[in-house]
Amino acid sequence: MAERRRAGFAVPLRNREFRALWSAELLSIGGDQIARVALSLLVFKETSSAALTALTYALTFIPAVLGGFLLSGLADRYPRRAVLVATDVVRAFLAAAMALPGLPLPVLWACVAVLSAAAGPFKAAQSALLPQVLGREDFPAGLALRQFTGQVAQVVAFGAGGLVLTLIEPHLGMLVNGCTFVLSAVIILKGVSERSASRTDTEQGEPAHAPTRTWFLLYALVLLVGFYVVPEGLAVPYGHALGISAFGIGLLLAADPLGSAIGAWLTSRFPLPATPLAALVFAVLAGLPLAACVFEPGVVASIVLWAASGAVSTAFLIQVQTVVVDLVPDARRGGVMGRMSTCLQCSQGVAILGGGLAAQQFGPFRAVAAAGAVAIGVAAGVGVLWALTRSRRRAGSERGSANEDVLDHQSLLVIDGPSSQRTDCLDGPPAENTPTTAPTGGPPGDASASSMQVRAPSGDKRPTSRTERIWHVTRWKIWSLPGHVLGYVLGVEAAAVLLLLLDGFRPVERADLVRFGILVGLGLVAAEVTRAVEQMRRRFSDTPHVNMSSVWTLAAALLLTPALAAAVATILYGHLWARSWRRISGMSLYRVAFSVSSVIVSCCAASILAARLPAVGALTDIDEATLLGLILVILCYWVVNSALVAAVIALSPGRRSVGSLVGSWSENILEFATLCVGVLVALLIAWRPLALVFVMVPLYVLTRSVLVRQLETAATTDRKTGLLNAETWKTLAENEVGKARGHRAPVGVLMIDVDKFKSVNDTYGHLAGDRVLRVLAQTIVDSVRSYDICARFGGEEFVVLLPGADTAKATEVADRVCSAVRAMRFDEESAMGDLRLSVSIGVAAYPEAGEDVGDLLVAADNVLFAAKDAGRDRVRSLSTNSRRLP
Questions:
Q1: Chain segment 308-358, per-residue pLDDT in tens
Q2: Cβ distance 544 to 416 under 8 Å?
Q3: Cα–Cα distance between 535 and 443 in angstroms, integer?
Q4: Which of 166, 311, 595, 740 could form a cystine bridge with 424, CB 3.0-4.6 A?
Q5: How far, in Å, CA of 684 to CA of 694, rounded?
Q6: What are phi and psi of 802, to 5 degrees?
Q7: Could you read off the pLDDT of 217-274 as tens digits, one per residue?
Q8: What are the phi and psi torsion angles at 613 (to 5°)?
Q9: What distance in Å separates the CA atoms of residue 89 and residue 84, rounded to the nearest whole number?
């Protein structure tokens, strides 16, 4: 085995199927580069337009991004060899069509766009097929060889393409590209064995879906790669800053590819442990050489640093792909790897663009160093989140599944939203401190009602009046927090005070007082206008809470001194507590104090950053530098506040997921929207204060829209499973059947019942049963098509509407659901480690089974009972016999 590992690139080349895939990839790369050069020459020759030539060249990249996101799933739905051959045939046909003389330019562009989009499923199928071909042991060596030869092939193909096109016409160059696709398809047909579609032969022990924290880690690791290519985009200004010639700039450009080739070779010679932690370590190491560029090293030192970063980042990229293979089930691997490859390309483009803007503002040395520093910080942050959520998950699993659910509902901390809007996240003591009297305020059954009350020690008289409760310090609810949580809360409050003292309370000018009055006045008016909405949102929802106070606090950080910005935050949050939150169960005063402190720290950080950016500090005009600076200020405000809140959530007892630490996507989007409005408020106050009246109405509508979204979600969603409820499903189903009647299309219905679910509740408890229902619901969603409509019909019954599916297609989907449920496994550490589930499914379809939704449900329910009578764990339809997959 040791000799085999030392063989380097020879290991994968011994594999016949890998050689076929590798050769086909090299042919595709060569043909693509020749086609790009030929297209540019052809369009410029016919139009003499640089803009149209650039547009044509861009069409070879932009549709590839869309194809990667939208079409990568084909690599999981169909046999991967068939996907590779089909995309090669399609691209060969399009390339041959583009070789026709006199082809109109719009038709040429359409062919280019479709040909580029077809590269998405090709890459996805190829990436997902490699682990099957090579096996887990040789897969990293195969990746290293592809990385090495891929970069060399691109450079050689560009040079060879220019040479070839000096000898032949551009139309013939397109024909050469088509021939490479045909040859690639033939090589794959001859050299790669046929395999069935991945989703139909998933192993029974394979999980149906990965946890949210896994997806977060994988995509975060992929997006990190963009930071490491920033030096390539800044090589020219970097070389000019060093005062070197074009030859020296060429050496700088060659440093990263050279280091990448060396890193790929070393990775194949010395295999590394492929774990998320190891990948994060390499991500940090890859950023260190770039961060060292802040010291403005010479030419030789810069080349060495860039090459070192390229070598380590290549090892990091190979590890990331290996981790993806380990963590993602084969049934999902094609779509995941295809989309991750597209994300990698996008991150590189965005990072280079951001690096260029930063170089224009701060210089190329600092821009390259900033890219390395950001990569280090992001990698470290992702590592901390991964470790925290994993430790919480392990701690929760040790308590048993029933205790997990209790802790989830009676935790010391309630997740209350991202950013300054989510700083009011602290709850009271544990639920075992049951109040001696019923709490007042808050909706019936509020989960935080009991957890916010402190039981008085025996023998003590509990203070009853409000004055006694305020001044009886030893009775404050904050002291009931665990010691480490209490220390962190007090530490954040002390940090806020310390930052204000270090600021020294700079002299306040009259203009500052005017702006202070405008911000406080408008903030109070907005809070009063939306007070009823804010109270309803607070009482109604247990999802992360987002208020709109950052509109005014961020504007204060941009316009005022830190002391005045702190005063704005204190006044606005004090008003929110007094007018909106005080009578809501769980909203204690110490929570508001923590909220204010975290907002003050965020304002100070944003104010310090704005002061160091002259264009932002002045706000006299909006140019590229000002725009970039404002974006950095928004990110600084959000990162600081999110980090403070994530830390207090992570310190709390119970299981914590990545979503609870960083917030959901919708909540973060809402937060960024309020921060952007805050920037607009600051600009209007600096330029045209009277125009602020136009901000108030959109702000009110934005606040109400969030409440409407929460109400819609609650009205249409089953709270236990997250699926639609039965009434909403029936409404959507009736609309879909009506459309199908007009277009004479079929509609399928699945009625799903969990076999012997009562035994789950009897054995593990009802809280564990609720958890099983959530997992079952997610498994069903993952097993059906993305546009199918799933709902909880009642109890342990689920129903699925399948638009455009006849009985045969609906039965195929039902078989997939049945297999996925049978393959479900729970944590081995929990009490449900040995739990095995199955479902019985009845299938009916319009119009064979009935003309309306009621008839379809009755028919599906009848055949469901037939499936249960036939022995359960099987699918039955009106037109097929019952069957149970082996």
A1: 998 888 888 888 888 777 777 777 777 778 888 888 778 877 888 788 888
A2: yes
A3: 11
A4: 595
A5: 10
A6: -120, 95
A7: 777 778 888 888 888 888 888 888 888 877 777 778 778 778 887 877 777 777 666 7
A8: -110, 100
A9: 9
| Residue 466: count of CB within 10 angstroms of its CB | 8
What tokens does 340 get? 């991750």
Label residue 557 left, alpha or beta by phi (over 0 means left) and psi (-120 to 50 means alpha): alpha
Sequence-distant contacts of 706-711: CB under 8 A, at least 24 apart:
706/537, 706/546, 706/670, 707/533, 707/536, 707/537, 707/540, 709/666, 710/537, 710/540, 710/541, 710/543, 711/540
Q: At what angle do helices 562-576 and 483-503 cross, to 10 degrees?
A: 140
Q: Which of 525, 522, 595, 510 is nearest to 560 (CA)?
A: 510
* Residue 597 one-letter amino acid: S
CB 707 within 8 A of CB 537: yes
> Residue 529 pLDDT more than 90?
no
- Residue 198 confidence (pLDDT): 61
Q: Report the C-alpha gap between 653 and 407 in whole angstroms.
A: 8
* Cα atoms in the Cβ-side hemisphere of radius 13 Å centred on 113: 9
Tokens at residue 650, please?
């992570």
In this structure, are residues 65 and 118 in contact, taking their beta carbons and an 8 Å threshold?
no
SS3 29: helix
pLDDT tens track for 558-602: 999 888 999 999 999 888 888 877 766 566 788 888 889 999 999
- The per-residue pLDDT for range 26-71, each reduced to its tens digit, is 777 777 666 666 777 777 777 777 666 666 656 666 667 777 777 8
Amino acid at 868: K
Burial of 866 (0-12, 13-18, 19+ CB in 10 A): middle
Q: d(Cα 456, Cα 176) in Å, to the nearest integer?
A: 85
CB atoms within 10 A of CB 248: 17
pLDDT at 403: 39
| 149, 26 contact by CB (below 8 A) | yes
Query: What stretch of H or E contains 801?
Result: strand 797-803
- Mean per-residue pLDDT for 78-89? 86
CA distances to 46, 472, 519 from 621, in Å: 42, 53, 21
Based on the number of CB atoms within 10 Å of its own CB, is 40 exposed (0-12), middle (13-18) or buried (19 or more)? middle
Neighbouring C-alpha atoms within 13 Å toward the C-beta of 451: 21
* pLDDT winner (highest mean) among 353-357, 508-512, 797-801: 797-801
- CB hemisphere CA count around 81 (13 angstroms): 16
As given in the structure block, the two tokens for residue 606 are 């944003």
- Distance separating alpha carbons of residues 695 and 715, to the nearest angstrom: 30
By residue count, the chain amounts to 886
Task: List the structure tokens of 96.
Answer: 């041959």
Alpha-helical runs (H) found in 234-291: 235-242, 246-269, 276-291
Whose structure tokens read 């991750």?
A: 340
What is the CB neighbour count within 10 angstroms for residue 719? 11
The token pair at 230 is: 């920033």
Number of other residues whose CB lies within 10 A of the CB of residue 301: 14
User: How far is 694 from 697, CA to CA, in rounded Å?
Assistant: 6
In 453-534, at which residue ranges do the beta strands (DSSP E only) sit? none
Which tokens is 833 given?
């480690």
